[in-house]
Design a protein that fits this description.
heterodimer; A: 513 residues; TIM Barrel; nine-stranded mixed beta sheet; B: alpha/beta; Rossmann fold; 9 helices
Amino acid sequence: MSREGILVPNPYERITDEQVQQIHRASLQILMDPGLICFSKKAAEIFKSNGAEVTTISSADNPCWRIKIPEKLVIEALDSAPKTVKLGARNPDNALIMKGDEPRVYFISGSETNIWLDVDFPAYVKKSDSSIEIKVPEFHPRRATVADLCQSAHVCEHLETLDGYIRTVNIQDADITEDNKDVNKFFASLNNTTKHFMSGLTKLEQLDNVVRMAELIAGGKEALQENPIISFITCLVKSPLQFVEDTTDTFIEVCRRGLPTVVSSSPQAGTTAPIKEAGIMAQINAEVLAGITLGQLVNKGTPMLYGSVPVMARMDTLSDSYGSVETSQYNIDCVQMARFYKIPNYSTSGVCDTKIPGQQSSIERLFSDIVVTLSGPQYLHCAYGLLDCNAVFCLLQAVLDDAHFQMLKFFLKTPRINQQELAETMKQIREVVETPQKLYIRYIRQVMRSGEISAPYPFEGDGESDSVFTLAYQRMNELLAKPVEHIAPDTTAEIFREIPGLLPRLNVYKEGK
Amino acid sequence: MTEDDIIVRLKENVIQGRKNQDEEGIDEKLSGTPGVVELTRLALEKKTSLEEIINTLTAGMRVVGEKYSSKEYFIPDMLASAEAVGEAMEILKPLLEAANVETKGKFAIATVAGDIHDIGKNIVAILLKGAGYEVHDLGSDVATEKIIDFVKKESPDYLGLSALLTTTMTEMGAVIEALKDSGLRDKVKVLIGGAAVSDEYAQEIGADAYCMDGFQAIKELDSF
């Protein structure tokens, strides 16, 4: 069994088949000229031993190489990269099966923000009439903790539309170090959601501890390969066209272990990529192809996703503008490129520029969520709860996002128009026109309870009041009060025995909890 | 089926909104079993008192109202139940008249001249019938003279006027003026409703009440 996601009928395409071909050819040219600068010795050696042109361009204290990747290597990699990728889950029914040529969309959280946004509702009294009091949401940013990560995984477990969980916050507790961050973020997340879990890795040395933890949960090494409950996201290529040492080395090791990984690139149009659409597309595609080629050279057939996080630069600050229209255009172009290669796509939407939930946040995220979903990416990192580009996570916003994804999923249902439906409704039409009241209302009831009618917006207020935030906050607390299925006590005990660095307070079975 | 069974089933079928045995209601298990119409006839055959039948119908509608308030039921459910009760009342009407039992009142309803929009008016008519009123639906785009004639001849206790358009709502004022001119204004309570009108407008034209929807109409009628 696996989650259904939503199959997009007739996915929207921005660029023509010829333009796809043009980008593909331009990317292949870029991979040879100028090629990539590589700061990873391991990657340089892998490319060299497989026939790429590798030249040293560095000094002794700053080793780096220029890699020119011939078309043949790229085509072979595209051929061996799996066209169907399974991302498993603690609850096997929550597995995600992604086919590169099938526009079935899964909605996923993310990314990793430093800031967690709390909300409360202080009361304000009207100056001219003290009998009138209103409650206004106030948002308070603070550094995120492991408890926040647990809470967000807990709520995401219960968000109906959310198919998989990318860790939402960077845990920054006083007792979290570079050495224990990975094991704690993996455990905190896995222990609070039975959906698929994806994350980056802070320290390569922790990879085996994290994989071992996943093996214990999944039921062994083979069981983990069969049901990969975790996957990794690695930004191995820094734009423009540079293999970064640490993430590339991490990527190589993940590929060696055969676990699914996202080959992600995030160029910014205007600064780290050309401002013109043709340019950023040729470059990001070259960067992702370079990563896919490396991964397949490391371990032929290792599962990977074509990861695209292209973004437009804001002209006023030159920072990322996820809320810009161009960002959605680039993402849709990338969806088409990935589909051309038949490799499942990790795409991005829903990230907004504004710092707090509100009208701007709703407009920016809903716009990109709709248009990018319609293009049919398989793994849509649609950023439940993400604000201020990638800087802030707000659980209240994640609950709000779930509501609009319900609308989007409903919208994408397959139209039910067939001979049987037409025959039934024509019978109704003939009956109703003969009645004095000429109303079809009596036929609504069964349809209403069959799930064929969309629900009203769940956070609708009464009359003229806007109660969206208070009702969503209420919903958020209801979800937090619902239990989640934690990892079993004996497995938890085994994990705490075997895996070093776990914070004792994360053990829900510990005495006194 | 015993008399007690019939009464229990009658209430349940009002709650389910099953007018007759052909209707499916909400609980699929009831499909094919007698609905409100058949059960009302069965109750009469068993000599159940009119009072008990009406009390049962009312008790069922009360549950429906509660379910609507708690958002378990929606308007289509409410209407289905009201329609079923309305049908039962049609069966009981001659018996009630023979027994000199008064209904809750005679209610004439119309969409005013120039306006053909009648969805709201029809829904209100169903709800009022289900609430025990004797409803006379005069139709849509009804000329003022026709309304006045009806009031003159049939002496309804209440007159409901509906209009969707800002261009036709003024006709409501014309009806009230015509009632005054005919010396009928104090003989009938006038309730207005429809998307174009408001409480303020009701006061402006001298109507007795503005009703946002059918439910408010029932509340207003109870308050008279």
